[in-house]
Amino acid sequence: MDNPDLYRFCPRCGGPLERRLLKPTEPERPVCARCGFIYYIDPKIAVGTIIATNAGGLILVRRAIEPGYGKWVFPGGYVDRGESLATAAVREAREECGLDIRLDALVNIYSYAGRAPVIVVYAATAVGGTLAIDEESLESAVFTRDALPWDDLAFRSTHEGLRDYLDGLRHPVHDVKG
What we know:
Largest sheet: 4 strands, mixed
Number of helices: 2
Strand content: 25-35%
CATH topology of the largest domain: Nucleoside Triphosphate Pyrophosphohydrolase
């Protein structure tokens, strides 16, 4: 839901929401005309993992859902409320490609003007499991660094995350156990 105008009713009382400028340095916000509730439309947090195999390959999955149907991404998805970033990254890797992983470092955090998701990308190593797919994937594969499908990546964050990873960008993380 990148378009805040799609929200028309208050989640507390059901009254109509109207756009108001509350502070001159902030965007207009939906405010309930009945009870005054301010509806802050916050970003959605997603995680992704660039998973290396023991042989040095990188795991990608081909999407079976929109957006990006048929395009390649590293395993990832949305963080559930109350879930740590690390736990979500490990869970999404297991769900999307069947692998157990060890989070090694933070690659980077990506956000784009006008887009709701903030994407947190980790470097990880496969430590178990069997490469597989789920209902959100058409295919999973191991790519050498020289064979990555650059022209067939689903998202800007996929491209930038892989580029940063290959350029050696790594930030230490202190609590990667979840």
